[in-house]
Amino acid sequence: IESIKTTPLTPLMKITQFITSFATGCIFLTGSASATILFSQRVPNPELEDSASGSDVDGFFGGGSQSADNLTLASPAIAHTVTWWGIFGEEGVPVNPVSFDLIFYADASGLPDKNSVLSSTNVTFTTLTDTGENFGENPWGDNVYVFQANLTPTSLPGGEQIWFSVLADSGSADDGDFRWRSDDNGDPAAFRVRLAEATTFIAASGDFSFVLEGVPEPSTTALLGLGGLALILRRRK
């Protein structure tokens, strides 16, 4: 019978094991922890301030239009989920499934940098979720729909302006194109029309309705410090 020799952990070995496990756990939790709200923006008073801006490849007489809104996170984070609200013009409801490109852009002189995409996720909805609200809080207003999607895990910077865009493909030109719900009295936004021709965004204003969820990134300095301490302790062992 082969005997197996076990060696009790010394206090130093226990500390080293704890630090290593802790650092590994931080990395694991970044990808799996329950999401928290990283950024939230809703129309504050729909009855007075409800607006909507076209963001659909089939909009603007078939030439397409795209809206984007700025945001700044307090610290670096991994974005997992986004929720947004919108209408389909003139009570139009797409017959075909609606797909969206959910795009994060870097900033270039106060506008989205179309050539610097931080992340892009494509999602398709075969059914629509009606919020029960009407655009402008009027009974005859367009139905307001809510959409929620999981993002390709996206690492976003903290402390600097970036841009988020919801670009639909509704398959419905003009009357049935998607329009992103917004507040006309908001801070800077951006817009472009005739997508095949427009290589840059132009400045606009408005706060588009969306909520971004995810988890903060662990501090790189803290992880490096823990890793370094673990190596030092192992060498002294």
Largest sheet: 12 strands, antiparallel
Low-confidence sequence ranges? 1-7, 12-16, 18-32, 220-224
Order of helices and strands: HEHEEEEEEEEEEEH
- Extended strand count: 12
Question: What percent strand?
Answer: over 45%
Percent of residues in helices: 10-25%
In terms of structural class, how would the helical and strand content be classed? alpha+beta
Q: What value does the Rg take, in angstroms? A: 24 Å
Average pLDDT score = 80
The total count of helices amounts to 3
Q: How far apart are the first and last residues' alpha carbons, in Å?
A: 32 Å
Overall 3D geometry?
Answer: globular
What features would you describe in this structure?
The model is unreliable at about 1-5, about 10-15, about 20-30 and about 220-225 (pLDDT under 50). Strands 1, 2, 3, 4, 5, 6, 7, 8, 9, 10, 11 and 12 form a twelve-stranded antiparallel β-sheet that branches. Strand 7 and strand 8 form a beta hairpin. The chain contains three helices and twelve strands, in the order αβαβββββββββββα. By secondary structure, it is of the alpha+beta class. The protein is about 20% helix and about 50% strand.
